[in-house]
């Protein structure tokens, strides 16, 4: 194990890719095999060619994924910034709008 792997190890594992683009749903999900817990700052890369599906289609496909674990500093930084980014979602303005 190298020093960089000790600070931020990587895991290669199989996954299931689920994509749907219909009138009712529009989503893309990756389900990792095993008991892998994704923590703040971790990155997941799904391998393979980009997927394009037509409207009304669904796709379920098996692929490989690489999980890049965040080191302690990156994890702490991500947790700190996430609070500020979440607050941006709650920004509400009560100023009256002007009619043009």
What does this structure look like?
The protein has one domain. The longest helix has 18 residues, at 72-89. A four-stranded antiparallel beta sheet has the order 2-1-4-3, with no helix packed on it. The chain is flat. The protein is α+β, with helices and mostly antiparallel strands. It has helices spanning 3-7, 72-89, and strands at 10-21, 26-32, 43-46, 57-68. The protein contains two helices and four strands; from the N terminus they run αββββα. 23% of the residues lie in helices and 35% in strands. The termini are far apart.
Provide keyphrases for this structure.
23% helix, 100 residues, disordered N terminus, alpha+beta
- Figure out the total of helices: 2
Strand content: 35-45%
Q: What class would the helix/strand composition place it in?
A: alpha+beta
H-E string: HEEEEH
Count of DSSP E strands?
4
Write a brief caption for the model.
With 100 residues, the chain is an alpha+beta fold.
Topology overview:
Layout: H1 3-7, E1 10-21, E2 26-32, E3 43-46, E4 57-68, H2 72-89
